[in-house]
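Consider the record:
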Amino acid sequence: MKKTITKLYFALIVISCFAFMGTIEMNRSHYLPTASLEASSFLRSSGSPGSSTGSPGDEFVDCTDCHSNSPGNFGLNASITTNIPATGYVLGETYTINVMTSSSGASGWGFELTAEKAGGTKVGVYDVTGASGAPKIITSGGSVTHSNETFSSWSFSWTAPGVDEGDITFYAAALAANGSGTGGDQVVTTSEVVSPSTLSLEETNRLTFDFFPNPIRDYVTIKLPDALSTGRVEVFDFSGKLVKASEINSIDKKLNLEALATGMYILRVTSNGKTDFKKIIKE
């Protein structure tokens, strides 16, 4: 009788162990990172989830959080180039940013790029209209990534902040993938520093204009020099984002800023190839 009970008890333990292991296997996906569950081709096609450029603002996280890095597999190299002149970026101007890679034997590629000032704050505004390589802006607007794995280089626009932010660094993480899961891929990071323009506004054709009132509650009135009758007015927040723009003329000189939140902004007025910036306060 004791032997029978012992055998039954042992059998129950074995069955319980198998059941427990089965439960672990069934629920393993609950504990594994999402990236480990998806094919790398899916990840590459959908682009980076964001905050993966290796920058200080991204807490130095890069694509290796989702893709195992196997240095030398594809001989991957990456670089960032721009058409920002050696004299530096001009406030509020738009430039072309290029992310380029070279590799051998990879079946797909991807990237993420961001621009940050000192301290890790993201600056500037991206635009992928007419871009090459099918890049897309990540929802938060703080970086750009790929939208499919076909291209190994990408080009898009970036507008510099409307206020001097000092040196700005472009950070990018690039990926060369083998198309078989998330292992055996290669990730590299790169960066490029640009400085504010060393040219004064006098040297780049300063526009002399007046405006009132300041602080502003609803409307700001722009007064151009007597020789000029038309111009363009743009308002940037302090992250460099364009928040309002309008054409003005000698009759219609007012810009409605009633909808803007309280705070400080940069007012840029351009007319006849000349420009200037003023700080304004919205009450």
Notes: Helices lie at 2-31, 34-37, 40-46. The chain has three helices and 16 strands. The longest strand covers residues 108-117. The chain has two domains: 38-194, 210-282.
